[in-house]
Amino acid sequence: MTSLDLAFAACGALAVVAGLLAVSTRQVVHAALWLVVALLGVAGCLLVLGHELVALVLVLVYVGAIVVLVLFALMLTRAPIGPDLVHAVPAWRRVLAGLAGAATTALLLAALLPLADGAVQRREISNKAVATELFGTWVWPFEALSVLLLAALIAALAVSRGAGAGVDTSSDRLLARLGHVDPAEGRSDVSQTGKKSKDGSGEEAR
Amino acid sequence: MSVLEVVLRSVAVLAAFLVFPLLVGQAEHKLMAHMQGRLGPMYAGGFHGWAQLVADGVKFAQKEDITPRAADRWIFRIAPFVALVPYLVAMGALPLQAGVVGIDVPASAVLVLAATSVGALGTLMAGWASANKYALLGALRSAAQLVSYELPLVLAVASACLAAGTLSLSGVVEAWSPWWLLWQAPGALVFLVAALAELQRPPFDMPIADAELVMGPWTEYTGLRFAFFLLAEYAGIVVFSLLFAVLYLGGWRGPFDDSLGWLWTLLKGFLVAVLVIWFRVAWPRMREDQLQRLAWLRLLPLALIQLALTGIGVVMTS
Lengths: 206, 318
Prior knowledge:
The complex is a heterodimer of chains A (about 210) and B (about 325).
Chain A: H1 3-24, H2 28-48, H3 52-77, H4 91-112, H5 127-137, H6 139-161, H7 170-177, H8 192-205
Helix pairs in contact in A: 1-2, 2-3
Chain B: H1 3-36, H2 52-62, H3 73-93, H4 108-129, H5 133-164, H6 169-175, H7 180-183, H8 185-198, H9 210-213, H10 223-248, H11 261-282, H12 288-317
Helix pairs in contact in B: 1-3, 1-10, 1-11, 2-10, 3-4, 3-10, 4-5, 5-6, 5-8, 5-12, 8-10, 8-12, 10-11
């Protein structure tokens, strides 16, 4: 057993344990934070295998942007401290979910285990090689994927704005929730305190 | 790399991590005192109030470490470290001179960006776990701000790396030429503004706006844990200033750069840090909608234009 094996096993175990905790915890914010640990474990595995760029981009995009967005959404809606009993599910659904997860794991293991030959091998892949593959061989799938994401983004915008998009757009409501002065109300008002209460009541009235 | 070398390098990075932020903090005290005519920071210890920072440190260490009863205990306690440690990692990858770097990795630019983006989680964890509505509002604002400004920041760094043809920070400095000051100027501007917003420094300090939210996500923190958040902020200033110097100002390039290169990098970085402090004194806080508008309607198009400009330049000269 080499030190590479050991490092890989440690990162892999970290990812698996954190992943299990992420789906089993009863606290939504904890789940998001365990997801961070799981992602860091996966990034560690990639680093051990020599895929530096992929590991770093994983951290940059998933931890730095996506999990921050998830946490933002959680805090904006409902994220109580302590176990979330409102969304508790009956036991049979938990058993079913566990079975589905176990079945997926078994399927993946059956497909992947024959490919593994036991030893962890480190292959230094240069950033240039990744770039050449991504923007050479795989450029069309890459572009198709980005168009798909763009379409999803525009659709989400259309859905969130709704049919009767007037002054009261969701972004205004969001900003009002963050404590900013509502653009719909006049900006000339100098009094800060008076403005805030007015804003608050306006928000309720709508 | 032998074990001894690893230990020595780690100790050197840790020393830099502990010294540079304090230097920036001291500079901020004195610069703000001069610029705004503040008398307070000029007394302690006699000459120019040199002991003010020491006194602050003693004060923080003395204070009781309180965890609110309603708080999420563990997350509340580890949040300062989640904010602090990523900057330590980032510091390890910043080169001061050819060969003078904690660890030279091929994609160090991405490493620094990834590390600093993790630091944002600390603020979010602190704000949520405090069980305080001001802290939660601050964390919400900071999440909205960080997600918005991450994109222009990454695009600006991508432009510099594209111009250099490498993701390594040392490689960027090797490829740098004085023309970059003109060619990469829009990108440099985008980077500076976005970095300021990532640091949540004025005029982008909406998340900790003390007149509205007490101290935002840090409201419930006391003593050393609060000091760790402050240290993380100043370490962030150091990291982003050095990154700016390395990416856009040519790092260690200058007269006698064979022997004095590290001094040039530090000097350029320190100038940027002074600029960051100056912004705090010079500008009032931006409102949340102004913040978002600036990120999406000004910085992002500017960064994209810079990326196109860089692409044209690279294709024309190659």
